[in-house]
Specification:
Keywords: Signal. This protein is of the alpha+beta class. The chain has a single domain (2-143), classed as Lipocalin (Beta Barrel), CATH 2.40.128. Helices cover 16% and strands 44% of the residues. The chain has an eight-stranded antiparallel barrel with strand order 1-2-3-4-5-7-8-9. The chain starts with a helix and ends with a strand.
C-alpha cells in the first residue's frame, strides 16, 4: 500500500512539473513609446516548448545615432519554481545577428494566484531580476 501511494505521488509530481514548465512557454512583449511616437522601444521574447528562446529588441529614437537599432539574442531556458534561468552558448547561439549574451539572466514568472478569487487583474509577465545585459534588469515583458 505504501509503495502504491509513493508511486502515485511521484507520478503526480512529475505531471505537475511538466504542466508548470509548459505554462511558461509562449510569446512575451513590451512596447514603450512617447505620445508623438518619436521614441519607440519594443521587446519580444519567445519561450519555446523545447527549452529554447529567441529575443528581439527594436528601438527607434529621433535624433539617435543610429536612429533605428535591432538587437537579437537566443539560447536555452529552464525553470525552477517561478524562476526562469536563461543561458547562451557562445559558440552556438552568438553570431553576427545574435549578439545579446543572456548568460546569468534570471526572470520571475508572475501570474495571478489560482487561489485568489478577487476581481483583481494580474497580467501574466516575466520580470527580469538579473542580467548580464545592463538594460534588461527590472524589465517586464507581458505574455500575449
Amino acid at each position: 500500500m505504501k509503495l502504491i501511494l509513493t508511486v502515485l505521488l511521484l507520478i503526480f509530481n512529475l505531471i505537475t512539473s511538466f504542466a508548470q514548465s509548459n505554462s511558461f512557454a509562449g510569446d512575451y512583449t513590451r512596447s514603450l513609446s512617447d505620445t508623438e511616437k518619436k521614441h519607440i522601444i519594443e521587446y519580444k521574447l519567445t519561450l519555446n516548448q523545447d527549452g529554447t528562446f529567441e529575443f528581439h529588441s527594436y528601438s527607434k529614437m529621433q535624433g539617435g545615432i543610429p536612429p533605428e537599432n535591432n538587437k537579437y539574442g537566443k539560447g536555452k531556458w529552464s525553470s525552477k519554481d517561478n524562476l526562469i534561468t536563461f543561458s547562451s552558448d557562445k559558440k552556438e547561439d552568438l553570431n553576427e545577428k545574435y549578439t545579446l549574451d543572456f548568460n546569468n539572466s534570471t526572470a520571475r514568472f508572475v501570474t495571478k494566484n489560482p487561489r485568489d478569487k478577487s476581481d483583481k487583474v494580474v497580467q501574466t509577465k516575466l520580470q527580469f531580476l538579473e542580467s548580464g545585459i545592463f538594460w534588461m534588469k527590472r524589465i517586464d515583458v507581458f505574455k500575449i
